[in-house]
């Protein structure tokens, strides 16, 4: 007779009929785990998201710890940037992968606060798990979280504490970027923020919302100190020129996306040479053809040639004779940036360009920095500058990568600033104000949804609590003091990372970019994916 479920050691163990009462656990290998029912699936989904959140949580804020990540290619990353950590990790679990994708979306849309997405998702699910174990239905938890989410969207408009009046003012932009850069490179914000602000302001178009983050380039050169970094009003290639010409002023530039050589057929052929004269004349026609093309190019006034593909020795010889500087740039992305800067058109044929296909630059020169030759294309006129490059110096490649990520975050924040120049207080002040609002709302909400709303408030409270924890402070007393300050009307007070206690975030210019009005996956859809993994939201 088949036996039903039996409780052994506090766990439900299924007994199999027809096996003499042998438990299923005894038939499986050592180290196995057996789960059944939707509750166990939900618990495992939440556990995976919590583990991902735990990994990145200790990296929040200026005092966040670095993580060593080795990706599938064996490359080592030492960083506290959550976007890089999550991107380079191999996240396999579907629920955790959903959180990782949300973090990547945040990186693409905003460029910052990616860690907040992961930590907040993990904390929300942790609160949901506690409610599930208390017996709350999943539908009530989803409804409560959705109400809290909508309340946050409504309430956040009242949290704006500052607005950038002029996004073309380097000083205002620099002050607005301090919190973003400080969270990645604490102590270097006084140097990096003005550099980023100047790089962005000098290339912002008349229609500021059309600002392109890709037009702020970073050239990483190992050696010297971070404080030796500088800005170039133009484009920099970390390559040497191909010939002997290293400096050109009032440059006229032609860009070829193909090889600089005569086109050849794909078929093979044989040539029969009968005497010495035929041998001498064999390559003469090819030389004459290349020389003619180079003379036609030189006749247009071109004195700088940039090629994406190979450059034959014969072509280089005649280009040198014509006093044309030759540069090879194999990257399509860099070719596109160069064309944008100079106004040139990338040609698919090797021949003389039309006048409208020729680009211009005030000067093109090859200089050596830290043993690395760099080719610089400079346009001094602000009206004509469309690309700016930050020459980044540091002693190690890992430090260069970290600095580059901090600059990318700052540039992305400037992009967001061109759409909405409002800012909220940082240091956990914004999250704590929303948490207090949700706690008050939860106390007035009837039914089981109030418990989910209060858990949402606790999840928001995790951000200032984590900032205090990473700064080595007593989290309980710090959060209590912060609540007391907000109750007393000091609504801009946040966590002071320099010394225990709180501080006015507006005074120290610790500001966070205002969240965009876009609404990605709603809580109902997200939690449906996590709780019902086989069902589409």
TrEMBL record:
It comes from the Eukaryota. It comes from Guillardia theta (Cryptophyte). GO terms for molecular function: ATP binding; ATP hydrolysis activity; ATP-dependent protein folding chaperone; unfolded protein binding. One of its GO terms (cellular component) is cytoplasm. Transmembrane segments: none annotated. PROSITE patterns: TCP1_2 (PS00751). It is found in: Cytoplasm. This is CCT-theta. Pfam families: Cpn60_TCP1. NCBIfam families: chap_CCT_theta. The keyword Hydrolase does not apply. Keywords: ATP-binding, Chaperone, Cytoplasm, Nucleotide-binding. Belongs to the TCP-1 chaperonin family. SUPFAM superfamilies: GroEL apical domain-like, GroEL equatorial domain-like, GroEL-intermediate domain like. Its main location: cytoplasm.
